[in-house]
Design brief:
single chain, alpha+beta, 5-stranded antiparallel beta sheet, 4-stranded mixed beta sheet, about 25% strand
Length: about 210
């Protein structure tokens, strides 16, 4: 869970996520048709409305998912938020297949464009949508991995109600409410720094500002 820590205490590019010894949880928002079928079958592509050839953007940050979907209230195509548990080895495989989206004024090489995964480092958000001074990772999956990665998901959970309860709490006001209390109230997941080896850090340009 992202807090309002200062820039000096959190690296500019860092992955924060909810994870255990076997899996990491990432989030994406889908329509009711896709989400309901996915949860029932425990297969993300259970609905024919799911299009594996389209780039899918997954996010380890709960707060960024809230921002991107407006707590699942943005539009019907993002009305259900799914928590997807992926084994660490497969998550690392996804990251190792990524090119980082270039900044303004720079372009990607042909080799980078050919990779099936895109990584963007976007400004992290607080749970009430304020911009924070460090970045959060978004991971776009397409190409052959767009077909494969859905089979790597070990568990699918609909966490839409958790998002909407958080929205209600934000609207009432969370002044003075700490992260630990929000976790205990079931409003946010417990997120920790997700460490990567130096090779992956370099390929994801994590040490650049």
């Amino acid at each position: 869970m992202s807090s309002s820590k200062t820039q000096s205490s959190i690296p500019y590019r860092q992955i924060r996520a909810h994870y255990d010894t076997e899996t990491i949880t990432v989030y994406q928002a889908y329509s009711a048709i896709i989400a309901t079928a996915a949860v029932e079958a425990q297969k993300l592509n259970a609905s024919p409305d799911f299009k594996p050839n389209r780039m899918t953007w997954i996010k380890p940050s709960w707060a960024w998912m809230m921002y991107r979907s407006n707590y699942s209230l943005k539009d019907p195509q993002q009305s259900h938020i799914l928590a997807l548990k992926i084994p660490h080895s497969h998550f690392h495989r996804i990251l190792s297949s990524a090119s980082v989206t270039p900044g303004h004024g720079t372009t990607m090489t042909a080799e980078e464009k050919a990779k099936p995964v895109r990584v963007q480092w976007d400004p992290e958000r607080s749970i009430d949508m304020k911009i924070l001074p460090y970045r959060s990772i978004q991971i776009g999956i397409s190409g052959h991995l767009g077909m494969e990665w859905v089979d790597w998901i070990e568990r699918i959970e609909d966490v839409t109600q958790m998002a909407r309860k958080l929205k209600e709490a934000v609207d009432v006001g969370l002044e003075g409410v700490g992260v630990e209390e929000m976790v205990e109230r079931g409003l946010v997941p417990r997120e920790r720094v997700y460490a990567l080896d130096e090779e992956l850090r370099k390929s994801l340009k994590m040490d650049l500002e």
